[in-house]
Specification:
heterodimer; A: mainly beta; Folate-binding fold; 4-stranded antiparallel beta sheet; B: alpha+beta; Ubiquitin-like (UB roll); FAD/NAD(P)-binding domain; 7-stranded mixed beta sheet; 6-stranded mixed beta sheet; 21% helix; binds FE2/S2 (inorganic) cluster; binds zinc ion
């Protein structure tokens, strides 16, 4: 594993500078039913293809952002600041 | 220049490799083969075959034909008992009928049999010896370039100049000590590119890494490059070279031909002979038989003659019957004749060195015209230049004819697999290259198939009646050539973190405890005693009866500021913090959405929009990232600053702590004015400080945070002020005992990856009425609802203290475990925190604890062992 991630703040850097935060998913509302919470807590899509993920630039800007990575080729199509894309309730 | 070989000094000349110096000194056997222990001599002379692996300065499996000779090297043979020239284990070849390919699968059907035989097989097989004490240092370095060119022959040089001319920054990597590629030793193939070399060397945009080899291409065009001995103190440097574009100009290498006894000492590849002649001024022998045809063979013949080697006329590959000789070659049989010689020079197959390209995803297509697999379908970030593409090649030798059963030639010299072995395996049904490879181990030796892959494919193709393309190459994977584990591991670098008070502790006789990267005092030796139990007991007594001082600078410290700071903390922590009054502090726990306890600490509100957080020592990074994560994308106005390194912190605790601190601050320290769980900002000993009235150890106490550079002054001032009260610094061990008596939980020690706050007895920290927080869903049920188990206190009977981790037994069965245990001076018995089944989480219940194999009775207690009402804490 040695691909590059184009950090939206710092530019392309080695993946070793980052911490992986898993697939970006919407957290259910507090009053959502048990099934929705079980799905959120225990079920993963495990996609073979492009997936939107959380990454944290540990050895750089120390910011969380999201990236679209192809899970088979590890090609990162793009990375972006969450506030600029998905609005204020990304989590 | 002189080095040592098996204890004997060997002279070397400038430009010599270890192998060339040994060859000049008359050494002909360089190793013993893997399975049969047959003597083996120089074969490729280019670092591409397994024949010259030796132990150099303790490092095993060094390819001495590409290791520059240096003064004082210590070189030893390996894998021969007792010596290279006489090896008992060579008797193995007499039994080769019993050692067919896969013989261990067939012979050792029972595990017991294999276990008995394994030590002997491991000794008989295998290569060098792993050094017990790996001497020397290894380095890692990182580098980026627009273009990386691998190979310093004419086409590599031209590619480098072309890219540099177009404005790119170029790194040129070549595994030879000098640039020029094959032109350095194939003098008749064309002039040495001296002009190109000079232009490359002087070009400001090209940096040259000569004598460095590239062992693999990884994702994102990352090249692994090893530079041996980059400077005197470094054995090897591993360079992580990343390039936007990679030009592979690795040329071709030569691979052997198949004929019986083709592995005898003295049978060498033509390029090895040419290297000896042109790079080291060494005639490879006295009398040579040359196998080959065409221009290349003529070139080799001419080189040998001009070096003074007597030669026979050229012998065409298909005319060869066998080589003869006992240990080394004495004659070649061909066309029914016997040609006496001491060296057989083989013009072998020229194989494009395309490993890096196929690692990048290129195909290798069979090209019958040039007799080689040539790369095709390169990714856009790669290109190839020169002979590696197949350009300029012509088939040097015909591929091996169908193998006659009695004709046994070595295909894979690394693993001693013969044509016979391959045919047997094919007959057993392993007729696909990938399965043939795995079953016979052909191409899986140290050379990674460079010497044997083409021949193995050819044998497989002929025997199965398929074409070369259809048979196909096996997958190329890095590393090739092999790399040392030392180079991969890199420098022996272990970071150590010291608190700002480190020297204060050292001066007071601290005995250190490693906590992650941190060094913390475990306890302090005194003039009276250096015994741990005695010292810890004295430190404990000082805190309980007088006053003690401990360095808690390793705590994680975060400042969370901004309009929405309280909102963020409400969301992330289980308690509520937006309603915390300025000047107050609160115990804080953090869960994930599974309701699992992740960390704890304190949160103090220093101002309306300013909170001061502490985290456990090991979890700082995690907590900071966790807060940032839940902040990301919310648009909230919060700023998080990690101030851990900027602050020193101490905890002053004990019944006389107030008297001590009063001497150093104007602050009203009265139990009303500065009550339990209050926080203040004030000067202590003239130093600006944050003071928290908290009590991990269960006594009146203050946690005092000051700028790191003022830490030593604060420490000294507190010890001075406390001298009249009998103050004593205490270490982590005393602190653990003190907190255990208070039943204060340490997250990660007393809890595990499944512990909820309810199980840990921390119901009061969960504010279920909050609209939302991380973990709310999982913790929304009643704290009393069925639980896995509970964390309880135990008072153990008898004298012996259980070890942390001891089993809790009920009716003779394990039912829980002890997480922390110490002898409590206050209780006068061993006490513990332990996980016990819910049914036993009752005051006064009895369980058993297993202490060194014996079951000992223990009584459950749900209250703190010391001061359960917290009167002393609040005093
Ligand atoms: S000769 Fe080296 S792996 Fe076969
Ligand atoms: Zn960044």
């Amino acid at each position: 594993m040695s691909f590059l991630i184009p950090c939206p703040h710092c530019g392309p850097r080695s993946v070793y500078e980052f911490r992986f935060g898993g697939e970006a998913r919407k957290r259910p509302a507090p009053e959502a039913d048990a099934a929705a919470w079980a799905e959120y807590l225990h079920v993963r899509r495990n996609a073979a293809g492009v997936q939107t993920e959380w990454w944290f630039h540990r050895a750089g800007c120390r910011q969380w952002f999201q990236a679209e990575r192809h899970t088979v080729t590890n090609h990162v199509r793009r990375a972006f600041r969450v506030e600029e894309e998905t609005g204020r309730d990304a989590l | 220049m002189r080095f040592e070989f098996n204890g004997t000094p060997v002279e070397a000349r400038p430009g010599d490799t270890v192998a060339s110096a040994l060859y000049r000194a008359g050494q002909r056997v360089f190793s013993r083969s893997f399975k049969y222990h047959r003597p083996r001599g120089l074969l490729c002379g280019a670092g591409k075959c397994p024949n010259c692996l030796m132990q150099v300065d303790g490092v095993p499996n060094v390819r001495v034909c590409v290791t520059p000779a240096r003064d004082g090297l210590v070189v030893r043979h390996q894998h021969a008992y007792p010596s290279l020239d006489f090896d008992w284990l060579s008797l193995a070849q007499r039994f080769d009928a019993f050692l067919p390919v896969g013989w261990y699968y067939k012979t050792f059907r029972s595990h017991a049999l294999w276990r008995a035989a394994e030590p002997f097989i491991r000794r008989a097989a295998g290569l060098g010896v792993v050094p017990a004490d790996p001497a020397g240092e290894y380095e890692h370095a990182f580098r980026q370039a627009d273009v990386a060119v691998i190979g310093g022959g004419p086409s590599g040089l031209e590619a480098a100049l072309a890219h540099a001319g177009a404005g790119s920054e170029v790194v040129l990597v070549d595994d030879q000590p000098e640039l020029g590629g094959h032109r350095r030793y194939r003098k008749r193939a064309g002039p040495e590119p001296t002009d190109l070399i000079a232009r490359v060397r002087s070009h400001p945009a090209i940096s040259v890494l000569a004598g460095a080899y590239c062992f693999g291409l990884y994702e994102g065009n990352l090249l692994g490059v090893v530079q041996p001995a980059p400077h005197a103190r470094c054995r090897e440097r591993l360079l992580h070279l990343r390039a936007a574009h990679v030009v592979v100009a690795t040329g071709v290498y030569e691979a052997p031909l198949l004929f019986p006894n083709n592995d005898l000492v003295g049978v060498m590849l033509s390029t090895a002979a040419q290297r000896l002649i042109h790079l080291h001024g060494l005639p490879p022998g006295k009398r040579a038989a040359v196998i080959g045809r065409g221009v290349r063979a003529e070139e080799v013949l001419a080189d040998l003659r001009s070096a003074g080697v007597e030669t026979h006329l050229l012998i065409a590959p298909e005319e060869v019957e066998r080589a003869e000789g006992a240990a080394s070659v004495s004659a070649l049989r061909a066309r029914g004749e016997r040609f006496p010689c001491d060296v057989v020079v083989v013009c072998g197959h020229l194989v494009p060195d395309a490993g890096l390209l196929s690692q990048a995803g290129a195909r290798l297509d069979w090209n019958a015209q040039v007799g080689a697999f040539c790369p095709a379908g390169l990714p856009p970030t790669m290109s190839a230049a020169g002979e590696v593409t197949g350009a300029g090649l012509s088939a040097a030798a015909p591929l091996p004819a169908p193998v006659a059963p009695h004709k046994r030639a070595f295909v894979c010299v690394c693993t001693d697999a013969t044509t016979q072995d391959l045919c047997d395996a094919l007959g057993e049904g392993f007729d696909h290259m990938e399965t043939l490879k795995r079953y016979t181990t052909t191409t899986m030796g140290p050379c990674q198939g460079r010497m044997c892959q083409l021949n193995a494919i050819a044998v497989c193709a002929r025997q199965t009646g398929r074409g070369m393309q259809e048979t196909g190459v096996t997958t190329s994977r890095p590393p090739n050539p092999g790399v040392t584990l030392g180079a991969l591991a890199g420098p022996r670098h272990h970071p150590i973190r010291r608190t700002p008070l480190h020297h204060q502790h050292a001066d007071r006789g601290a005995v250190w405890l490693d906590m992650g990267e941190w060094k913390r005092p475990r306890y302090y030796r005194t003039a009276a005693s250096s015994d741990e139990t005695t010292c810890v007991r004295a430190e404990y007594a000082a805190v309980r009866q007088r006053v003690g001082l401990i360095d808690v600078s390793t705590l994680g410290k975060l400042e969370v500021r901004g309009r929405d700071a309280g909102r963020l903390l409400d969301k992330v922590y289980t308690h509520r913090f937006s309603d915390l009054a300025v000047g107050r502090a609160r115990y804080a726990t953090l869960c994930d959405d599974h309701g699992i306890l992740l960390d704890d600490g304190t949160i103090s509100r220093l101002a309306e929009d300013r909170y001061f957080l502490t985290t456990t020592t090991g979890n700082l990074d995690f907590v900071e990232q966790w807060l940032l994560w839940w902040l990301a994308g919310t648009g909230q106005h919060v700023h998080i600053a990690n101030v851990t390194g900027g602050l020193a912190a101490v905890n002053l605790a004990g019944p006389l702590a107030r008297d001590t601190l009063r001497k150093l601050t104007a602050l009203d320290l009265g139990s009303q004015a500065f009550s339990y769980m209050a926080c203040r900002q004030a000067e202590v000993a003239g130093i600006p400080a944050i003071l928290l009235r908290i009590g991990f150890v269960g006594e009146t106490g203050w946690e005092i945070h000051v700028p790191a550079e003022c830490g030593p002054d604060l420490w000294d001032a507190l010890l001075d002020a406390g001298r009249e009260f009998g103050i004593r610094p205490f270490g982590v061990e005393a602190q653990r005992l003190l907190r255990l008596e208070k039943k204060h939980v340490i997250i990660g020690v007393d809890t595990d990856a499944l512990t909820t706050p309810y199980e840990a007895g921390l119901n009061w920290v969960v504010r279920r009425e909050k609209e939302d927080f991380i973990g709310r869903h999982a913790l929304s049920g009643s704290p009393r609802s069925p639980r896995r188990e509970s964390l309880v206190g135990l008072v153990v009977e008898g004298e012996q203290t259980p070890e942390d981790g001891s089993a809790v037994m009920i009716n003779g069965r394990p039912a829980g475990r002890v997480t922390s245990a110490r002898f409590s001076p206050h209780v006068g018995a061993p006490i513990a925190l332990a996980w016990a089944p819910e049914a036993k989480a009752v005051e006064g219940a009895r369980v058993e604890v297993r202490i060194r194999g014996r079951a000992v009775t223990a009584r459950v207690t749900l209250e703190a062992f010391y001061d359960p009402e917290g009167a002393r804490l609040r005093a």
